Structure formats: C-alpha cells, structure tokens
Amino acid sequence: ETGVTQSPTHLIKTRGQQVTLRCSSQSGHNTVSWYQQALGQGPQFIFQYYREEENGRGNFPPRFSGLQFPNYSSELNVNALELDDSALYLCASSLQQGYNSPLHFGNGTRLTVT
Amino acid sequence: GNSVTQMEGPVTLSEEAFLTINCTYTATGYPSLFWYVQYPGEGLQLLLKATKADDKGSNKGFEATYRKETTSFHLEKGSVQVSDSAVYFCALRGDGNNRKLIWGLGTSLAVNP
After folding, report:
1. What is the pLDDT of residue B54?
2. For testing contact with chain A, the best of B23, B39, B44, B88 (most A CBs within 10 A)
3. Which residues contact B37 (CB under 8 A, 6 or more apart)?
4. By three-state DSSP, how is residue B61 classified?
5. Between chains, do B95 and A40 touch, taking CB under 8 Å as contact?
6. Which has the closest alpha carbon to B87: B100, B79, B75?
7. Closest CA to A89 of A15, A34, A40
8. Do A97 and B97 touch (CB under 8 A)?
9. Distance between CA atoms of B5 and B68, rounded to whole angstroms?
10. What is the pLDDT of residues A30-50, one digit of tens each?
11. Taking CA atoms, which of A20, A45, A74, B3 is between 20 and 30 Å from A64?
C-alpha cells in the first residue's frame, strides 16, 4: 500500500507570502490531520479533516487554512507568512475517525520563511 | 487540559545498554497512549501504543505499559543498538472523536558503538 506522501519536501518563502503544502493520504484513509513541528519541539496540532470537513482545530490563527478533497488528499494553506512559521509541517492520515486508529505520518515539508 | 511530560534529553548510551525514557500524562477519561519515533530527516513513525490501563505495547524490542495509577507510559528497551538513535515522542489522544494528539517535547537518544 502507498504511504502518506507530502510535497514539496523543502520550501523557502519570504515573509508576507502565501504557501500551499500538499498531502496524499494512505490508500483508504479518510481522516487527515496537520501538525507543525518547530525545531527541537514536539508537533503541534493545526487541524483535522474528516470526509472533506474540518472537525478539529488547534490554537492556530485563521491564516492557517486547509482543504480535503474527495480522494481524501489534503492541502494546508498559510497566508501572510511570518518568520515563526518556519517549521516542519507534518501530515498524518488514518483509516477512520475512531480514536484507536493509528496515525500514519508523511516525511513532512520543511518550510523556511526569510 | 490534557498534557504529556517526558524526560528531557539528550540521552547518550553505549550499545547494548538498557534504555528508559520516562513519560507521564494528565488527562480526563480514558486516553490512548503512544510512542512515536523520528529518525533523522524522516517523519514520525508509530512505535507502539496502548489503549487501556495495564495494556503493554511492544515493537522492535521496545515496551511500554499503560499505568493509570501512576499516569505513566515509560518506554524501555533491554539492549539498544546504534540504529535506535532517534528522537522519541510520547503522545496522548483523548477518548473523543477528535484525533488530536497531545505530544511531549521529545527525547533525543544517541547510541554509541
């Protein structure tokens, strides 16, 4: 089975710009969540999508937004980039919404904002 | 709210040494507990999990037991290898439909030959 894939792997943007990160979930998985991992820190939950609707959100401002498509792939959009947005962005998918289903992570997108 | 506290690193061990990484949690209800591992340059991988009290998760020689009385989920391995060098994260998920994981800060492990 195909695992979770994220693109691009690395990205450099300038403060104030906008960025879109992409995630293809593992085959058959209908739930996708996004995390931000700053250097040397644990991941911070951004939001989660289940069957194309956002159904959970962490403590991130509205300039962080997302989409989930009918094939369950997902995008993370960040507007008006700030220097502190520099981080590894991780996407995770799972088979169902039940809390026992494990998350499968992609390798992440390393975003650098200058 | 829910939270996870894990021991600070870095932890440096010699090959074949015994490993313990402590993890304690605060949560209401009946959370599930996880250990994830992140190898250099890679994403997070589920190492093991436990979904109820007294459950023992195990994988690749690593073990952790869900102790509700001490609110702990310590990671152990009897004999570490150089290939175990990575960052280890303890995480918790509450007993609801939101799949949000609460993470510890991670513990870096370096195993020397």
Report:
1. 95
2. B44
3. B44, B45, B47, B86, B87, B88, B89
4. coil
5. no
6. B75
7. A34
8. yes
9. 15
10. 889 999 999 888 889 899 998
11. B3
